[in-house]
Amino acid sequence: MKSVRRKILLFGLTAMISFSLAACGSKEEDTGGTTAGTDTAATTAATTAATTAKEDDEDVTTGGTYTAGTYTATAKGNNGDVTLEVTFDSDAIKSIEIKEHGETPGISDAPIAKIPELIIANQSLNIDAITGATNTSNAILNAVADAVNQAGGDAEALKKVEVAANEAAGEAVEKEADVIVVGAGGAGLAAAVSAAEEGASVIVIEKNPYIGGNTVRTGGGYASCDPEAIAIHEMTPGQMAEIEGLIARETDNEAVKGWQKKVAEDMEAYKAEGKTQVYDSLEYMSLQYFFRFSQAADPELLYDLVSKSKPTKEWLGELGFDWTDSPSLLLGDTWPRWFSSVSAHGGNMFISVFTDEIEEKNYNVEIIKEVRANELLTADGRVVGVKGTASDGTEYTLNANKGVVLATGGFSANKEMLIEYSDGRWADISKLQTDNDPAMVGDGIKMALEIGADVVDMGHLQLVPLSDPKTGDAYPFIGTGTNLYVNKEGKRFVNELSDRDTLSNAALAQTDGIFYMVCDKNNAGVGEDGITYGGQNIQDLIDAGLVVKADTLEELAELIDVDPATFVETIEKFNEAVKTGVDPEFNRASFGGDFINPDGNPGIFEPPFYTGPRTPSAHITKGGLKVNTSAEVIGTDGNTIPGLFAAGEVTGGRTVAGLLEAMTSGRTAGKTVMGK
Ligand SMILES: Cc1cc2nc3c(=O)[nH]c(=O)nc-3n(C[C@H](O)[C@H](O)[C@H](O)COP(=O)(O)OP(=O)(O)OC[C@H]3O[C@@H](n4cnc5c(N)ncnc54)[C@H](O)[C@@H]3O)c2cc1C
Predict the structure, then answer these.
(1) Fewest C-beta atoms under 10 Å: which of 37, 158, 467, 616?
(2) What is the CATH number for 37?
(3) Which of 592, 618, 644 is the last residue of a domain?
(4) pLDDT digits (tens, 9 = 90+) for 628-673
(5) Are residues 182 and 144 in the same domain?
């Protein structure tokens, strides 16, 4: 078996080994932040009016603007075709029904709900795309335009029809609950459900018209320390060397020395017992993360996070999360301890498991969308609520009986903040794009700073090396992430299995900061159904100019303007390394199943050949609000701020952001705010 079913997990964006993502059919929405028609895929969508058919011939009446009836139209969305039915009477568009789509659940909810409503209310196609879901929005607008033309109307004229201004702000709203949660991403919803389990009434406010934040953009990889589960993997010499290296690392930190001692003892026993499986322990996982992430973590917070990884995973399982049994690797990691959902694409299960639970248990949890929190309310030194503004301008005052949980995510989408807090680890932040939801601008940090909160490790920005140079979007791409990387000069420049900082640094040092992931038929990650590893149709990517395909390596090189002779020589050298397992140039330790061909002809050799440009983009901000292991926010005076809690990427101190942090700290915050 090869291809999509056996790959290393990419920066959390893709499937686990032995688990096919392609079968799940969809992928991330665009990172958006643009308005209609300004990004490449949207432009493609605009020029693509695909299959159309008039369905309801019997019901036809004529005489007005339209030939009444129901018409079907299809246009390209983010993940493929969006098909809808539009019903007209002779004067107006009466209904729009989305019949089929593969758009990302969560992110596409808002355009699917809102764009048809706005078209009908205004009888106009002059509707702004929803930020963060541009491609889905444009697909709906384009398909409706097509249906309008089929019905004898004039879509171009409808694109000029003025849309009624936003309704005036409503009357100010004041509400009260035990707990106010700001942000309906993974951490916020974990906090809401965990507090509800303790009997709380909860209000969650979310500034986007959809819930899920960055959490739904993920590939759904959750890191958990589970020594029994990881033992399905055999330990490699490289992993053994890593353990020995980490035990020997110099440190002044007493907690870290204690972890080293425990791991050293474990390894003695391991060897004495003649074990061969991958070893893991709370101490080892903490040790790895401590040294991998600049030794910047607070050891107490880090160990607490790691200790909660398995119990929180089990809690999610009790709520209905269908975990994979076997953990796997993730891009930039060396330990196969990543779990994901069997059935759900990407990060969706990290959201739906909570919304389903709220519904099933009938918890007193209200989620209010399109309200942006902008101020924390205090009284007598305690945080007692939040002030927010709805998208129509309505003012919200939300009073908290027990406390406020900030779960507003990171700030990768706020370039000014990235620059302001830069610790110099990335040379030219102003040029970086991001793969984040545009909402990730650090609101929670700013609000908490206003009332005296402290922040830690704010310059610790993690880049993801494999983004689309045009948009910064983590998708789309061809390959699996661990493919051969070649620069514009046609040469390899890095061990493709390095950690993310090394990969990103190496990539940024190349001409224009760009490199190409080069694949052949066997390692392109394209399933028999033509769906890529990231869940997109390969032909769509080629049509959109995001991926190039050729029958020979020379032609491929020409398509990307690289010297064919150098390119071919690089690939021949790489193939030799795959064949011998020895990589003299970059010391790559493993090539994985993708490069091993049953005919004994390993490497990149079988047409068609594919490639596409990649560059690093801002991915995760590891710094944030200073918190303790109970998710209480700590002020600049060193004391906790009564009534204020924080969870997820808005916090700092652990250096391990991501779903693990969101789930564990969210759950903790919900309990602590209820005094548990
Ligand atoms: C493309 C991509 C792939 C990733 N893959 C993985 C992976 O597989 N595994 C992993 O561990 N990590 C992964 N990460 C990192 C991970 O997504 C985040 O660290 C994690 O989801 C953060 O969760 P959160 O709840 O803190 O924030 P989010 O899920 O981002 O939620 C924050 C929410 O707060 C809302 N909000 C912000 N400000 C306000 C305000 N003022 N008022 C109201 N609401 C507000 C936002 O709109 C958002 O909905 C990935 C990140 C990206 C971008």
Answers:
(1) 37
(2) 3.90.1010
(3) 618
(4) 999 999 999 999 999 999 999 999 999 988 999 999 999 999 999 9
(5) no
What stretches of 301-437 adopt beta strand conformation (E)?
Answer: 338-339, 365-369, 371-379, 382-390, 395-406
Beta strands in 255-345 (DSSP E): 338-339
Count of Cβ atoms closer than 10 Å to residue 298 Cβ: 21
∠ Cα 668 672 676 (to 5°): 105
> Residue 611 in contact with residue 519, Cβ under 8 Å?
yes
Catalytic residue among 5, 500, 614, 667: 500
Is 87 part of any domain?
A: yes
Q: Is the CB–ligand 1 distance for residue 500 below 6 Å?
A: no
Mutational pocket test of ligand 1: of 369, 370, 408, the residue with most ligand atoms within 8 Å of the beta carbon: 408
Does a structural domain hold residue 139?
A: yes
Strand, helix or coil for residue 631: coil
Q: Summarize the confidence of residues 329-349 as an average pLDDT.
A: 85
Residue 4: DSSP 8-state: G
How many domains does the structure of the chain reveal?
Answer: 4
In a domain, 25, yes or no: no
Q: Quick one: average pLDDT of 398-424?
A: 97
215 C-alpha to ligand 1 centroid (Å): 4
Above 50 in pLDDT, residue 80? Answer: yes
Cα gap 25→386, rounded to integer Å: 39
The confidence band for 512, taking pLDDT boundaries of 50, 70 and 90, is very high
Let me know whether 488 and 607 are in one domain: yes
CATH code for the domain in which residue 638 is found? 3.50.50.60
Which of residues 339, 360, 379 is at a domain's end?
339
**What domain range includes position 428?**
173-220+345-459+628-673
22 belongs to a structural domain:
no
User: Which one of 205, 214, 386, 468 would you pick to mutate in the ligand 1 pocket, going by the greatest count of ligand atoms within 8 A of its CB?
Assistant: 214
269 CA distance to ligand 1 middle (Å): 40
Checking if the pLDDT of 585 tops 70, the result is: yes
d(CA 275, CA 233): 12
pLDDT higher than threshold 50 for residue 2: no
pTM of the entire structure?
0.83
292 labelled catalytic: no
In terms of Cα–Cα distance, which of 619, 621, 659 is closest to 464? 619
pLDDT digits 0-9 by tens, 275-300: 999 999 999 999 999 998 889 999 99
| pLDDT per position as a tens digit, 134-143 | 888 999 999 9
Output the pLDDT for position 481: 79
The verdict on the CB of residue 619 being under 6 Å from ligand 1 is: yes
440 CA closest ligand 1 atom index: 37
CA of 316 relative to ligand 1 center, distance in Å? 18
Question: Looking at the structure, do residues 439 and 500 belong to the same domain, yes or no?
Answer: no
Q: Which two tokens stand for residue 302?
A: 């880090």
Give the pLDDT of residue 657: 87
Reported as a single tens digit per residue, the pLDDT across 599-618 is 555 688 899 999 999 999 99
Residues 280 and 136 in one domain: no
